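Example 528, ligand beta-D-glucopyranose.
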Amino acid sequence: MQPFIAAMQKVRQAFLAAIIKSFLRTKHVLQTILNIWISPSVIKDENGSISSRNGRRLGAAEFVEVVENAFRGLVGRTRLVALSDGLRKEFLDSMYDNPLCMLPSYNHQLPSGEERGTFLALDVGGSTFRVALIELSGRKSDGQECKILKRNTFKIDRTVKQLKGVLFFDWMAERIEEVLSGQAEGHDMSNAPLTMGLAWSFPIEQTSLRSGLLQAMGKGFLAAHGLLGQDLGDLIQESCSRRGLNVQLNAIVNDSSATLLSKAYIDPATRFALILGTGVNAAVHLPVHVFSPPKFGVRPPEWHNSAKHVIVNTELSMFGRGILPYTQWDELLLSVHPNPTFQPLEHFVSGGYLGEIVRLVLVEGIQTAGLFGGVVPPSLRERYSLETETLSHIESDLSPNLTKAQAIFLSRHPTNIPPSTTDLQTIRLIAAHVTHRAAGVVAAGVHALWQLRNEAESILPHESSHTLVAYNGSVLENYPGFKVTCQKHLDTLVEASGGKKGSIELMYAEESSLLGAAVAGAVASLDG
Ligand code: BGC
């Protein structure tokens, strides 16, 4: 038996060795296939092509072409005109009965230019809380209409965003105290309370110049938790009183309305404002008669008697569901969004989302077209990890080797396989297509409002006077080429609707939220 068992063992060993050898060979083949799959540059170098989707992998250039076709075609002239028409129709419907958008403020008068005094301006933005002591000296021709005496910026990080309910307003009051604890130049704190104006970058249902009901907040904030429908003015005032601060909140305005007020204080012809930063919004001065009466809620008869026009917070971010030019990557973004239907237009254009759309496209390019040697940098696997600001640095590097772009990318997204110049150029191209579409969508929104106002005022497009749109926000201000592209789309749209090129002009409004909050405070003080 022994020799037989020994022989069997030998046979078994030989068999196993053969299997292992074969497995190793297969593994080698599998590994090679895997290597080719995740590092298609190998194939590209040897064969000049990359296999991919539908059995054939795309090369980087082909992938960019696919991205270009997906995004560019969506904002050609005809598509933009249709989008503008669709948005205008949605605006009109919302002016009839939507409680969330096309919200008439209480500001029925634009600044007279006589606003003077020292005000504490508060600006709650998407990622910062800013507090400034501002001195207004009235409209003048020498550019000295306002002076910022003191200004502090506090970051609103994840922890602050997650403060629920009153805790958030207490945090605000604490910051205000910090600013006032140095001496408030230009104001004797022992006397009458210091007048505050607030720019609020969230929807609000105004109930007077100085009050408004808290509505659902986007941008990851939890402050409205348990407080929906409560008075925002009271909440802030109470938190300040608890800290014994001698301040009086006199005005609340949405940041889009603040932008309009800030520019109108200096240039009385301003009727439009546009914000494009973490969020997007527009404000417009419209005749009251175009709204259905319930849109005004309960207001004193005196308001109705004197209001012929009103500044409207459009909440532009909330329009466009179903008519916006979606791609597969937008669908992907929405498939895991906690609130996919709340602000459809914002998902296409704002600083809060541009980076994420580009990330989704890029990750697909890495996985299917061999960008970055087929290896996704670990941090890019995380949602919202690619910031719009990073893209703006990458797009602004015009050097042939993109050295700065590479340094900034690697500092934020370290990886073992540093991006090649081709990889960086590809990111630039993807970002350019995504932002080109965004600029078109924003232009369609502004054009739709322009058409709506022309109709409301019975002005024909070719008779429309030069319209200034006061703008502010990090994307419009800092993203390379964004404003210029947006202006070009606007010119196209204006001409398509029979107007003169340049009829709508985007005009920078510096420090618009802070200045607008101070102007709103001053207007409210004059109003009594
Ligand atoms: C908010 C608006 C705000 C805009 C710009 C949007 O997400 O809903 O109220 O004006 O962002 O900050």
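Summary: The chain is about 50% helix and 15% strand.
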